[in-house]
Design a protein that fits this description.
The protein has 167 residues and is of the alpha+beta class. It is built from 2 helices and 7 strands; from the N terminus they run E-E-H-E-E-E-E-H-E. Helix 1 packs across helix 2.
Length: 167
């Protein structure tokens, strides 16, 4: 008899019911975050270098304004079953002559829950989830939102921003 593993994967948006929050800036040096992202991401999310990445990084220096698209990821393990992921996407423009420009940053924090096993183990997992883990999950969601808000506060302080746009 062949036993098949059953995989359970769930994702929680930390800003639910919204999926993400947008930060917008217009003024001098809009690409400061791009230069300083390594010094910001690791301490804010309390992760090492191996837990951050840049899957997409595009510059266009040929025209005026200079254009940038960057995508960063950071992950942090909260438990054996749960990992915190944050995706940060930035689109920006800067004038070569005036050194001023704009950027728009999308911040999307997610909790990913993964579990796998045979059918009996998965059935026992759902009982465990219902009785115990769901309360732990709620505290992880609060922690996830707090870490994302901490990052937003750092960006707001860096650019002297007042309010943020939520979508």
């Amino acid at each position: 008899m062949v036993r098949m593993a059953v995989k359970v994967i769930m994702e929680d948006d930390c800003f639910a019911p919204r999926k993400s929050v947008w930060v917008e800036y217009t003024g001098p040096d809009p690409f400061a975050f791009v230069r300083e992202h390594r010094n910001i991401l690791r301490p804010v999310f309390e992760v090492g270098t191996s837990s951050t990445g840049e899957p997409r990084w595009m510059w266009d220096w040929t025209g005026d304004p200079i254009q940038l698209y960057a995508h960063w990821l950071a992950k942090k393990s909260y438990s054996r079953f749960t990992t915190f992921w944050i995706s940060i996407r930035t689109v920006g423009f800067i004038s070569k002559a005036r050194k001023e420009g704009t950027f728009r940053m999308e911040i999307e924090p997610v909790l990913k829950h993964k579990f796998e096993g045979n059918r009996i183990v998965v059935w026992l997992w759902w009982i465990y989830w219902y009785l115990f883990y769901n309360r732990i999950r709620q505290s992880m969601l609060i922690r996830c939102k707090d870490m994302a808000n901490k990052f937003i506060a750092v960006i707001k302080e860096m650019y002297n921003l007042g309010s943020i746009q939520e979508e």
